[in-house]
Specification:
homodimer, alpha/beta, Nucleotidyltransferase, domain 5, Ubiquitin-like (UB roll), 6-stranded mixed sheet, 16 helices, about 30% helix, elongated
């Protein structure tokens, strides 16, 4: 299991997440029935169905539920609770329990990342997250990134192994959240945010076409699938909804991010960026949405440094460097002796080095230095200096340059000048932990008024929670998927030009970073 | 397998059975898709679904069909045929085939009787019956009538054995109709007419409550169930529709009979009678429908005579008796030496004996006789006289008396004088094979103008065909089920009085049989 740092509870900073009218994927209804008599000797199943149809319209009863009905009704003196699952065009009775259990309704909001899987246990009555658990995706053993997974899926039995791996991860996390089998069967719905490849592998669908022109996945919008047909260990008939994808490289996780941001409902133009194992950028407003994604190569997936590590105990997570003396102050997660540097520590370090003039606008060390000590050997867990080298900085600049290049290209192509960006939404770990000032200083975030920089946390998981709880949000997600225009980055020659020319701090065009420019002038 | 005599092709005598607008349970649609390109790189499954949704509204795609889509589309140059199944509130894609196979659509109309099962292979494009096959219900070994089957179901593993028996019967017949497995998977829909107990046993549902007050079945209207969930060997996702029942003793077979007769749409009052292993009587018109059923005891299920046999080769099926000489002319099925007498032969015999004065109005032999030779020993297959005895006649009169008593009681209770009956519908074998004149003579059929006596043949099977082919007919069947009032015969003390007083030929009230009265007067 990952620790708390790795498992953000769903809470989008500055973003309204409360749902006024809950309309979850499954509903529980308490029924007070009449015992059959010679005056009303309708069949038990029909009586239950008729009563439900009064409020829900078309309700079907699967054969396997039928035998349960008479016994449950009779044992509970005809006071029973029905569980209804949304099947898109109507409802299906998936359970009948004795007594009134209508307050006990649970669902799962699931974020399946290429690297990390997070499962949130949601109270379907209140909409609140009760517990959550996270772990690495077991598929990592079969390839670190999406392309390697797709390659693995083409091996004999590879697809089945990949599906099994992610199901093992999911079902292990579900067991952590609900240790008793009786409890897991009370989970009657699930919604999933994930990229297109993750959805294909979860459903056991061949992802080969995702990385072959014309990059057409097998499915974008899988609709509602019973949990049993996938292999998720919750109520066997629980409907599972996957956030729809737009294409091979813009998955339900991105649609979810847009949904959570609300940028698709605002007249002003916003920029949405999620940099995880893959990177996605979306630009637009209520009228249009354009998106691009970087799936190939290390440019958007890199950021690997010699002492880089995940945000686990012992990681240096905050760094400040005295611009005059070069003196370093740092903190580590759980205050343990430092083992390495995680993403937020790295961004702080780069910002400090840049503001102190230790590296120049091209991110090159000045004064003949080629590394910088962040934690001296005697303070480090391994008794060795923890440093950042020129190579580390170059790797990071490739990632940052790719984000800048892709953003600029997208904006140029739709003819949107950077002054028109009203909000910046940062999603995922990229949006959850990075220190805002440092991220702006090195040009990872745009230099907007800080109130216009909104961090969405795990927007894929939060979007899953929203669609789990709201039919309106499901329709909204599907409308977003219909609306987004995909901008092909890989096929674009201009991207490489931009990329090469964008490795500057904070940005090639310093005018776009007035607050950083101001601070630089204050320092010198 | 039963021979032709036992397996009436669906053809309701004098009843219009053509369906103007076919709307079968499954539809096939030929799709000419666009290969994906960089301009339209929607996922394959989504492209298929979008195209279908233009004409059909909500269409869902089950997980198991998804992997089939890309390969089928690509192998067939994007010219494919989709099979859609009605799921009540929308449609489900259950198959995708290469090329245009939209003219190859097959379904089954099934009549599951307590004794006999008939399966009709129906062309879903034309609505026509292509072939049919019939056999005894394998459940007979576990009890001859409904009550014994229900008792057997209560034994350990009894229910499972009964379900397996009827499934074996069905699947054997399906194999006869479609010997190749490839062909059976092309059968994409089925509709079933059967009594309430037969439906419970087919679906593996405990029928115990059917014969326990307040006689509430587990289910009246099972809706649409995928064939696989029942165990019928056709396309695994083929929707199976069971004609709804009204209660424990008025099953989908009777609803089907009403549907086929059309009595529920006529302003004039009709009488519907089906005497098989059970007996059901329905009275009514477009405004009201009242029905009763006799499930208990031999009264309506009897008619067993010493030389009684089913209508198989060698059965005496037609008899005429010279009223003056008592000379007998008879025919046998397939002109084989006589083995016994089937129902139609028995009715002819009784009518002849009555008209010739060999038996009186109380159905007692006159002149000290106590049996009558129909086939002399030297003509009979077994070298023994084939006779009808006083005991045989008494048994038959019990059945006839019960039908008359039940009918009269029903009419009295709704205040309908017999003069108001405009049409008489005779269903099942009772309606298919009995010689009309003889049936009227002995009072089994009412003495109406012969054009008002309509024989529906296997109306349960015909109704199954109609609901297989027409959504309107399905709704009509469900509306009939809502409308019929069940009249409890067993709980009615007046029934026994009527029954005892009704064992007269043709009827207690001779005025109701003017044409018979006329013939009697002509003879004497």
């Amino acid at each position: 299991m990952l620790n708390q740092k790795e498992t953000p509870i769903i809470l989008a900073e500055q973003v309204q997440t409360s749902l006024s009218n809950l309309a979850p994927l499954t509903r529980k209804v308490f029924l007070s029935l009449n015992p059959p008599s010679s005056l009303d000797n309708r069949a038990d199943v029909d009586q239950v169905r008729h009563m439900l149809e009064r409020s829900f319209g078309s309700v079907s009863v699967p054969r396997e539920i039928m035998p349960k009905v008479p016994g449950t009704c009779r044992s509970a003196d005809w006071q029973v609770t029905a569980t209804l699952a949304d099947i898109g065009c109507g409802w299906k009775l998936i359970d009948l329990e004795p007594g009134d259990t209508s307050r006990e309704q649970f669902g799962l909001a699931i974020d399946i990342g290429t690297t990390t899987v997070v499962v949130y246990l949601v109270d379907l009555c209140s909409g609140e997250v009760l517990r959550h658990a996270a772990d690495y995706n077991d598929q990592i053993m079969m390839g670190e990134d999406i392309l390697n997974r797709i390659r693995y899926a083409a091996e004999p039995n590879g697809l089945a192994q990949l599906q099994k791996a992610v199901l093992n991860t999911l079902n292990r996390l579900i067991k952590v959240l609900c240790p008793l089998p009786m409890e897991t069967s009370k989970i009657t719905a699930a919604a999933i945010g994930a990229n297109t490849t993750m959805i294909h592998l979860l459903l056991g669908l061949d992802p080969a076409s995702i990385c072959r022109a014309p990059y057409t996945p097998m499915i974008n919008n899988p609709g509602l699938i019973p949990a049993r047909e996938i292999g998720i260990d919750i109520h066997s008939l629980a409907p599972v909804y996957c956030l729809p994808s737009i294409g091979s490289y813009l998955g339900g996780d991105v649609i979810g991010g847009i949904l959570v941001s609300g940028m698709h409902k605002q007249p002003a133009i916003s920029l949405f960026v999620d940099i995880g194992t893959n990177g996605e950028i979306v630009l637009g407003n209520e009228d249009w949405l354009v998106a691009c994604a970087g799936a190939a190569g290390p440019a958007l997936e890199g950021g690997v440094t010699t002492f880089g590590m995940r945000a686990e105990p012992g990681a240096v997570d905050h760094v400040s460097i005295d611009p005059k003396t070069g003196w370093v102050e740092y903190s580590t997660i759980d205050n343990l002796p430092a083992k390495g540097i995680c993403g937020s520590g790295l961004v702080d370090t780069l910002a400090g080095l840049f503001l102190g003039g230790f590296i120049n606008r091209s991110a090159r060390f000045q004064n003949g230095q080629n590394e910088f000590v962040i934690v001296p050997a005697h303070e480090a867990a391994e008794g060795e200096d923890i440093v950042i080298s020129q190579v580390d900085i170059n790797n990071f600049m490739a990632t940052k340059g790719a984000v800048n290049a892709a953003t600029d290209l997208l904006m140029e192509n739709v003819g949107c000048p950077w002054q028109e960006i009203s909000h910046f939404y940062a999603a995922g770990a990229f949006g959850q932990y990075l220190p805002i000032e440092s991220a702006v200083t090195i040009g990872l975030y745009p230099d907007l008024p800080r109130s216009a920089i909104l961090r969405l946390g795990n927007s894929s998981g939060e979007a899953a929670r929203q669609v789990l709880l709201s039919r309106t949000k499901r329709l909204e997600a599907e409308a977003i998927a219909e609306k987004v225009t995909y901008f092909e980055l890989n096929a674009n020659a201009a991207f490489m030009d931009k990329f090469v020319g964008s490795k500057f701090l904070p940005h090639t065009d310093l005018e776009r970073y007035p607050s950083v420019n101001q601070r630089l002038q204050n320092h010198f």
